[in-house]
Amino acid sequence: MRTEGLLRSTLTLVAGGALAQALPLALSPLLTRLYTPDQFGHFTLVAAVAVNLGVVACARYEYALPLEPDAQRARALLALCLRVLLLVSLLSVPVAWWLSRGSPASGWLWLPAVVASAGAVQCLTMWATRAQRFGALSGARVVQYGGAALAQAGAGLSAPAAALGGHGLIAAPVIANLATLALLQRPAPEGGWRSLWRLPRAEWLAAAREHRSFPLLNAPHAFNGALQDTLCVLLLTWWSGDAAVGFWGLAMRCLKAPATLVGGAVSQVLYPKLATTDRAAARRSVRQVMAVLLALALPLALVLMVFGPALFAALFGEPWRAAGELARALAPYIGVHFVASPLAVVTLAWQAQGWALRLALIGQVVFLAAVAVGLHFGGLQGAAWAVSAAMLPYFGFYFWSLAHWPLPAPEPNASTHPN
Fold first, then answer.
1. What is the rounded distance in angstroms from the CA atom of residue 186 to the CA atom of residue 80?
2. Chain centroid to CA 80
3. pLDDT at position 410
4. Long-range CB contacts (< 8 A, 24+ apart) of 398-404?
5. The dihedral of CA 71, 73, 79, 84: what is its sign?
6. Which end of the chain lies in a sparser environment, N or C, as judged by fewer CB atoms within 10 Å?
C-alpha cells in the first residue's frame, strides 16, 4: 500500500472513529447525571471481566486473517474463529452464574452476551480489514461505540430507569454490537456464512496448526493485558469501593478515548503494511508513526495536568471532580499509552510475539505494583501518580526497542551496501 493509500485509509477510519468517540464523550455529561458513581463502578467491573474473556474469545486467531493471502485458507481460519468463539461464549455462562451468586439481578448475567457479541465484532472486523473495507470499518466504529452510548442514555431516560438501575449501562453495548455485526457481514465468505459450519474438520484444524502462534503467544499477551485492568479494578473495589471505581472508570474511559480513536485507525491500516513491506521500510514507518503520535500526545497530557479537575467538574458535574483529579495524575501515563496503543500490531507483523509477551508481563507487574503501593501510601490519587511514574520508563524502553528493531540478516548471495 502506497503512502497516499495509507494516509487515505487512515483518515477514513479516523473520521468514523472521531464520530464514534465524539458521541460517547458528548453524552458522558448526561450519563453521569443519569447513573451514580456506584453504578458506573459496577459497570466498570463487569466490563473489565468481559474484556478479559472477550480478547481471547477467538483465541486471537482472528488476527491472522489479514495476513492470510489465500481465500480458501482464510475461509477455514474464519470457520475456526467462529467455533472457538462459540466455545468461549458457552464457558462464560458458568462464570456469570458464579459471579452473580447472592445477587441474581446483578449485571453479571449479561456477561455471556457481552463476550459473544464483542468477540464476533472483533472477528468480523479483522475479516473486513483483510478485505480492506475501510469505509465499512469506519461506519462500524460509529455504530459500536456511538450506538452503545446512545442506548445507555436511552435506558437511563426511560420510564423504568429506576428499576433498570445500572443494567442499562451493561446491556447497551450488547445491542450496539449486534447492530455492528450487520454492517460487517459483507463480504460473506464463499458459500455464505452457514457454509462455515459445514466446512470439513481437517481444513479448520489445519488452519489452527498453521497459525498456532496466535493462541500460544498472542492470546496470553492479550489476556494478561486485560487481566491487568481487571485486577486493578478489583484492587480498587477492595480498597475504596464501587464509587472510587466509578471515578477511575470514567477517567480512564474519557482519557483513553483519543487512543482508541487514533490507535485503532492507525493499527488497522499499519498492520497489513508491516506484513507486506521489507523490514527496513517497515521500521521507518514505525518511527514515523511514533513521532507523529508523540507530537499529538504531549499537548493532550499538558492540558489534562493543568485543567483536568476543572474540566471534569464542568462537564460531568461537581460530584465528579475527583475523576478530574485522577485525570491530572494519570496524564503522563495516558500520553505514552496514546503512542503505544497502535504499536501492538508491530510485533505481530514482525513475528516477535514471544518478546512482546515477556515485556508485557513485566509491564503488568509494574502497573499493579504501582497501584498497590500508591493506594497504600496515598489512596486513590497516590495510585494514579504512582502508575504514571512507573510506566514512563517502561514505555520508553518499548519505544526505543521498536525504533531500533534489528533488521534480518542479508541473504548469503545478496549484495549489501553500507548505510
1. 18
2. 22
3. 45
4. 398/340, 398/343, 398/359, 398/363, 399/290, 399/336, 399/339, 399/340, 399/343, 401/359, 402/286, 402/290, 402/343, 402/346, 402/347, 403/283, 403/286, 403/287, 403/290
5. negative
6. C
Instruction: Specify the 3-state DSSP secondary structure of 408.
Output: coil
Looking at residue 319, the DSSP 8-state letter turns out to be G
Contact 380, 237 (CB under 8 A): no
Looking at residue 336, what is its pLDDT?
92
What is the 3-state secondary structure of 254-315? HHCHHHHHHHHHHHHHHHHHHHHCCHHHHHHHHHHHHHHHHHHHHHHHHHHHHHHHHHHHHH
Q: Where are the beta strands (DSSP E) in 35-137?
A: none
**What's the one-letter identity of residue 84?**
V
Predicted confidence at residue 416, as pLDDT, reads 33
Report the chain (419 residues): mean pLDDT per 10 consecutive residues: 57 69 84 86 88 93 92 95 96 91 74 95 94 85 91 80 70 94 89 93 95 88 83 86 84 79 70 72 85 89 92 89 92 91 82 85 93 92 95 95 76 37
Name the one residue in this structure whose C-alpha cell is 459445514: 198
Stated pTM of the model: 0.74
- Are the CB atoms for 17 and 261 separated by under 8 Å? yes
DSSP annotation string for 203-270: HHHHHHHHTTHIIIIIHHHHHHHHHHHHHHHHHHHHHH-HHHHHHHHHHHHHHTHHHHHHHHHHHHHH
Written as one letter, the residue type at 388 is S
Question: Coil, helix or strand for 409?
Answer: coil
Residues 6+ apart with CB under 8 A from 137: 13, 16, 125, 128, 129, 184, 268
Q: Which residue has the cell 487514533?
A: 262
Instruction: Select from 269, 186, 328 the least CA-distant residue to 14.
Output: 269
CA of 269: how far to CAs of 24, 215, 255, 321, in Å?
A: 24, 23, 23, 37
| Domain locations in the chain as residue ranges | 3-403
Residue for cell digits 453495548?
173
DSSP secondary structure, 8-39, as one string: HHHHHHHHHHHHHHHHHHHHHHHHHHHS-HHH
**334/387 Cα distance (integer angstroms):** 10
Residue 230: partners with Cβ closer than 8 Å, 6 or more residues away: 48, 49, 51, 52
How high is the pLDDT of residue 249? 86
Q: Taking a C-beta distance cutoff of 8 angstroms, is the pair 376, 244 a contact?
A: no
* The total number of residues written for the chain in this structure: 419
Asked if 223 and 56 count as a contact pair (C-beta separation under 8 A), the reply is yes
Q: Which of 406, 402, 298 is nearest to 345 (CA)?
A: 402
Q: Which three cell numbers stand for residue 168?
A: 442499562
Q: DSSP state, 200?
A: -
